[in-house]
Design goal:
Order of helices and strands: EHEHEHHHHHHEHEHEEEHH
Radius of gyration: 22 Å
Strand order of the largest sheet: 2-3-5-8-7-6
CATH architecture of the largest domain: 3-Layer(aba) Sandwich
GO molecular function, one term: serine-type carboxypeptidase activity
Number of helices: 12
Number of strands: 8
GO biological process, one term: proteolysis
Largest sheet: 6 strands, mixed
CATH class of the largest domain: Alpha Beta
Pfam family, one: Peptidase_S10
Distance between the termini: 17 Å
Helix content: 25-40%
InterPro entries: AB_hydrolase_fold (IPR029058), Peptidase_S10 (IPR001563)
Family: Belongs to the peptidase S10 family.
CATH topology of the largest domain: Rossmann fold
C-alpha cells in the first residue's frame, strides 16, 4: 500500500553521497545546513510544481529531530509572508528525537533503572547528588562518581536497543581489520565485496546475527558502481563511502533547544507526531514524553494501546495542539530500523489522518 511519496536528503554536506567542490563547503552547522535544506526545498518544488498541491510533511529521526522542527519553522515563516513556491505544509514528525534539552540525557537514568541495568542504590545516589543538574555535566564529585558508574554499566548493553547483543559498530576499521573479522558464522563474504569500486577502509565484519551486520553490508552496497548508477551519483564526486561518526565532519552544533519551535508550530495548527522505540536507551521515550507534556496542552485522547494484527504495537496519547506521541513496541534507536512493519502502520494511519 502506497500512502505517500518520500524525498530523502543527504545532509549535512559530506553525509551520504552529498559533496562540496570546495573544502570550506563542508564547514556547516545546524543553522547553515537547515538553510541549505530550505533552499533545496524551494528549488525542488520550483522544478516539480505538480507536487505543490500535495500535503507536505517534514520528518527526521535522532539528531534530525532537532533539524526537522527548525526547518519547519523556517518554511512556515515563508508561507506566512507568501514566499513562492507556496508549499502545502501540513505538519512534521520526529522519531527518537533530540531536543537539546537535558531531559534527553537525564531520562536515561530512570530508564536504565526501570530495565534493571542499574541498581536501586545507584539510582537513589544519582537522584540525591545530581538533583537539578544536567547529568551529562556533573557539578559535584559525588554526582560525577555516580555518573561514572552509571556510564560504565550502560556500556554493557546495546544502547540503541537494550535487548540486543552489543556488537561491533561496523564503521571503518584499521588496516589490519581483516584479521579481526569474525568468520564464526561460516558464511562467505559476498562476491560483490570484491572488485567493484574503491574500497580502502572496509569495516570489521560482525557476526551475522548482529544488527550491525546490515551496516557492514551497506559499505559494499554504497561502494558498488551499480548502486551509484541507480542513484544517479555523479562520477568523481564521491570516492569511497563510509559510515561516519559524529565528529567526522566539521559540523557546528548551534541549536541549544528546539522546544520553542514545537510550541510555535503546534500552536499554529500544524500536525505533529513524536514517536519512540520503547527499547532505546540513547534517547529514551521517558524524556520525549516529558518534553511533549511540557508544552502544556490538554489531553484529547488519553494513554492507550494502539494495535496491529490484533496485538498491541505500542502506546499513544494525543493532545489538543495536534501533537500525537506514540511508542513502538520493540523499537530501538531509531524505531523503523528495528520495527519497520509497526512503524509503517503508525505512519500510514497518522499521515492519512486516521486513528492509530
Amino acid at each position: 500500500m502506497q500512502v505517500s511519496h518520500i524525498l530523502f536528503v543527504d545532509s549535512p554536506v559530506g553525509a551520504g553521497f552529498s559533496f562540496s567542490r570546495q573544502l570550506k563547503g563542508y564547514e556547516v552547522g545546524d543553522i547553515s545546513s537547515t538553510l541549505q535544506l530550505h533552499e533545496f526545498l524551494v528549488k525542488w518544488f520550483s522544478d516539480h510544481p505538480k507536487y505543490l498541491a500535495s500535503p507536505f510533511y517534514i520528518g527526521g529521526d535522532s539528531y534530525a529531530g532537532m533539524i526537522a522542527p527548525f526547518l519547519m519553522q523556517i518554511v512556515s515563516e515563508g508561507i506566512e509572508v507568501g514566499r513562492r513556491p507556496l508549499l502545502n505544509m501540513k505538519g512534521y514528525l520526529v522519531g527518537n528525537p533530540g531536543t537539546g534539552e537535558s531531559v534527553d540525557f537525564n531520562s536515561r537514568v530512570p530508564y536504565a533503572h526501570g530495565f534493571g541495568i542499574i541498581s536501586d542504590q545507584l539510582y537513589e545516589t544519582i537522584l540525591k547528588h545530581c538533583q537539578g543538574q544536567d547529568y551529562s555535566n556533573p557539578s559535584n564529585a559525588q554526582c560525577a562518581e555516580a555518573m561514572g558508574r552509571f556510564n560504565s554499566l550502560i556500556s554493557e548493553v546495546q544502547q540503541a536497543q537494550v535487548l540486543l547483543d552489543a556488537c561491533v559498530y561496523a564503521s571503518p576499521a584499521p588496516d589490519d581489520a581483516n584479521s579481526k573479522m569474525d568468520g564464526s558464522d561460516g558464511r562467505k563474504i559476498l562476491k560483490e565485496e570484491i572488485g567493484l569500486g574503491q574500497r580502502n577502509h572496509p569495516p570489521a565484519r560482525p557476526p551475522f546475527g548482529c544488527v550491525t551486520y546490515g551496516y557492514y553490508l551497506s559499505y559494499y552496497w554504497a561502494n558498488d558502481r551499480r548502486t551509484r548508477d541507480a542513484l544517479g551519483v555523479k562520477e568523481g564526486t564521491k570516492d569511497e563511502w563510509v559510515r561516519c561518526h559524529d565528529n567526522d565532519l566539521p559540523y557546528s552544533y548551534e541549536l541549544k533547544s528546539v522546544l520553542k519551535y514545537h510550541q510555535n508550530l503546534t500552536s499554529r495548527g500544524y500536525r505533529a507526531l513524536a514517536y519512540s522505540g520503547d527499547h532505546d536507551l540513547l534517547v529514551p521515550h521517558l524524556g520525549t514524553q516529558a518534553w511533549v507534556r511540557s508544552l502544556n496542552f490538554s489531553v484529547v485522547d488519553d494513554w492507550r494501546a494502539w494495535h496491529l494484527g490484533g496485538q498491541a504495537a505500542g502506546f499513544t496519547i494525543s493532545y489538543s495542539n495536534n501533537m500525537t506521541f506514540a511508542t513502538i513496541k520493540g523499537g530501538g534507536h531509531t524505531a523503523p530500523e528495528y520495527e519497520p512493519e509497526r512503524c509503517f502502520a503508525m505512519f500510514s494511519r497518522w499521515i492519512l489522518n486516521r486513528t492509530l
